[in-house]
Amino acid sequence: MTDSESQDKLGPYTLLSKLGQGGMGEVHLARDSRLGRDVGLKLLPSDLHKDPERRERLLREARAVAQLNHPNIATIHEVGEAEGQDYLAFEYVDGSTLDTVLRQRRLTPREIVDIAAPLADAIAFAHERGIIHRDIKATNVMLTSRGVPKLIDFGLAKAVTVAAAPVDEDSNTLTNLTMAGSVLGTPEAMSPEQALGRPVDKRSDIFSFGGLLYVMAAGCSPFRREGQTFMEVIDAVIHQDPEPLARVRPDLPRALVALIERAMCKSPVDRYASMTDLVSDLERVKKGLHERNRISFRRPAVWIPLAALAIALAGLGFWWWQRESRVEWARNQALPEIARLVDATPWTGGIGLWDAFALGREAEVYIGDDPTLLTLSKKYSAPLTIRSDPPGAQVYARPYASVEGEWELLGETPIESLRYVRGVLRVRVEKNGYRPVHDIYWNPMFKGGERGYVLREPGNIPEGMEWCPASAPRLWVQGAPAGIHLPGIEHLPPRDLDDFFIDRCEVTNRAYKRFVDAGGYKQERFWKVPFAENGRPVDWKTAMARFTDKTRRPGPATWEVGDYPEGRDDFPVTGVSWFEAMAFAEFVGKTLPTIYHWDTVALTWASGDIVPFANLNGRAPRAVGSTQAMHRFGTYDLAGNVREWCINASSRGGRFILGGGWNDPAYAFNDAFAQNPWDRSPTNGLRCMRYASDSANRTALEQSIELPFRDFLNEPQVSNDTFDVYRAQFRYDEKPLNATIEETKEEQDYKRIKITFDAAYGGERMMAYLFLPTKGKPPYQTVVLFPGSGAIHTRSSESLSPRTSDFILKSGRALMFPIYKSTYERGDGLVSDYPDETSHWKDHIIMWSKDLSRSIDYLETREDIAADKLAYLGLSWGAAMGPIMIAVESRLKVGVVVVAGLNFQRALPEVDEVHYAPRVKIPMLMLNGKYDFFFPYETAQLPFYELLGTPAEHKKLVVYEAGHAFPRTARARETLAWLDKYLGPVEF
Known about the structure:
Elements: E1 9-10, E2 13-22, E3 25-32, E4 37-43, H1 52-66, E5 76-82, E6 85-91, E7 95-97, H2 98-104, H3 109-128, E8 141-144, E9 149-151, H4 156-162, H5 192-195, H6 202-218, H7 230-239, H8 245-248, H9 254-263, H10 275-297, H11 300-303, H12 306-313, H13 316-343, H14 351-367, H15 371-380, E10 381-386, E11 388-389, E12 394-399, E13 408-412, E14 415-421, E15 423-430, E16 437-443, E17 446-447, E18 453-454, E19 465-468, E20 474-475, E21 500-503, H16 509-517, E22 532-533, E23 536-537, H17 540-546, H18 578-587, H19 595-602, H20 607-610, E24 643-649, E25 655-658, E26 674-675, E27 684-685, E28 689-691, H21 698-701, H22 720-728, E29 740-746, E30 750-758, E31 765-773, E32 780-786, H23 806-810, E33 814-819, H24 839-859, E34 865-875, H25 877-880, H26 882-888, E35 894-898, H27 913-916, E36 924-929, H28 937-947, E37 955-960, H29 968-983
Parallel strand pairs: 11-18, 24-27, 32-33, 32-34, 34-35, 35-36, 36-37
Antiparallel strand pairs: 1-2, 2-3, 3-4, 4-6, 5-6, 7-8, 8-9, 10-14, 12-13, 12-15, 15-16, 17-20, 19-21, 21-28, 22-23, 24-25, 25-26, 29-30, 30-31, 31-33
């Protein structure tokens, strides 16, 4: 059977629905016409017929597993063949996987042992018959509708994978199929010896079972953390100990903790000698827990309410009817509303995701295993981890945008991988005897140290300042590991910041007046930085003559007669130069923040959430702390109100002054802005910091910063002759593609085709995925995608899907996703999408262009593709690459770039976007966020748009109130309208 989706029968089985697909083949729900029962039907890989010896071994092993007759093992009914297709028929378990249950809630100690005990007995039963599972994990455990656990895929998963290994003909155990030196299976479910590729025995299953118990107790893997690679998990299995369960779950019986720790010993000789021994200990733990519950049951506090329980049972019938109506509500009303909320919310999060999360939690009660809900839940929720030192602090959260909303108690620290709302949260961490911590937590963009929030007693934090422990959660994005999250200087390496304090708000007029009244402008001891201008020294007297107010008395430029206006005590001081800010900091025993400290606290990446609350693009400053623009650690107004001087110099002689002022545009919060240190504009203010101890990194943190800012519109353009030379480097010799279709998968809205073909360089083969719509008529208009930088840091394209671009397929168009050099399986060590002036970067630009062109070469070979109606879609990194890709590839007819802008970092002239944008002539649509931190509106987005050579009537810039994001629904609407206009509407 070569196309199972096109047939509904296989021998005596009627295929009802497809349950899944993987390396072992397809799994279907099927009806056995002989016995009138539903079964699971696994269609084994068709290539087994090419290797008769391998096929015979596999079928013999399957028959061996079929002899396992245990109530907690999913039974194999039959191993057979029909119409040239090998299949396994096995017991269909109607229920949920244990993994699904664990993602919904935490199990009680009694629930853990009630599930674990029969599973352990099932594994012991198999071991006695010489069969080892080798992939014990929560996804391989089913819980029936009555809560009965069933172990599935017993031995078969590994049998298929390793069937080509030598086998001992005198033994019928599956362990003989494991080849020494091979690493097989799910990494976090492996034993150390299995991870090392060594021979395994029954004790390997014991280790994996211990890991399963750990997951059931802790709610998270003992070895895998979000974002880790396969090899990082393998290393953790071999070398690292998991978080102690006694700390994660202090309510667990000590005997159960000891059992799990013994089962998970790294050395096999230190584990239980047999699963039977483990079962005995587990039964004792179970008996103890049940005995404890029986003792509790005899107490009056338990049996007296039984009368009330009896009354409640009378309403059971009504409850059941009501529950069924709620199931219908969850599927027909909640799911569509959740999808709408997710689509309408930018990626940084917002109230929409909180509403989706609340609806999802309610719907999970009734349809917890619904696949649509599970897919949506990954978009509105993510694992959240918060630790504290000392532990036991209560953690509360609410939406960032809900400044007056109710706080929700999340639990006590440590909180490990709690599934919670995805996005920017306001959190509060508090414990008796310690000062509460108020913070922003971006779930899941943060990672933190083991200590987490280090709490301090109230008297140990200076008045008016906030405590910033180095171990607290920090923004960390693997795809953009920047030291500073400000455009133009993201290339700076990350720096270690020791503990520090920072002012909660800007320095006020009242505070600065103390400096003035104390003779601050008359005492040289506060002015420790030498005065200089244009490279020439300035003497003390001359400098002080410049630092006067409107009446020429010492003080800020906005004051009069040495004082500020009446009633402005709590307003930020303004009109001060960098030199005055440094002198004031010296006066109060502090310093100005470095750009690293300022950036860490400001969290500019969350500008889409913060800026709407900030005093930017306004008429006047506000009293400090009067807005709701909260930043990290309970600080306020790093965005707007006044610009804040930092200690670092720029390479152009200025000093950084960040955050923007009340009369600056909104995007100023994200700009790496530096100005003359003598400048005394009425937007200039300051905030101070203090190191908690001597910092070994202080010199490096305070160093001058190379500022690669570019004025794109005023940069000289190369001539057409020079550009022709540039474009010539992208040419390649025509040669056969030698294309091969490696795989075809049918999904609900599209067909995914994996193709390999010869690249245009280095004798390499490259891949591409072509997604064909189920709607529309061929030949299809086709959109060719260039992805965001996350593709550089992902090593497998196996699960690649259209994701947020699926609307293209639903519109009846095809989507081509080339696997460019440096991405997915083609990773070559490139770690950043930031340009640089090296041949290495230039070579990659050329390879990416050739990959795009070779993918179009392939599209031209297909009759079901309209090769004269091709569009370019660039996302973030792909948007920045758009000018080069489109200017070089003449077969593209229309372009759409999402969150686009020009990079401030320079590349070699022959691959610099600024020379290619004017050569783009096709219709172009730009979809951008107003508060984009990568590509600021004024300095990166507008130059991109204005430099495009497309006639003004055929280019369009749409700006949304968001950061580095554009909402999916609006993106779909704008993109499809643009494609309809320039490629023509699709016929259905």
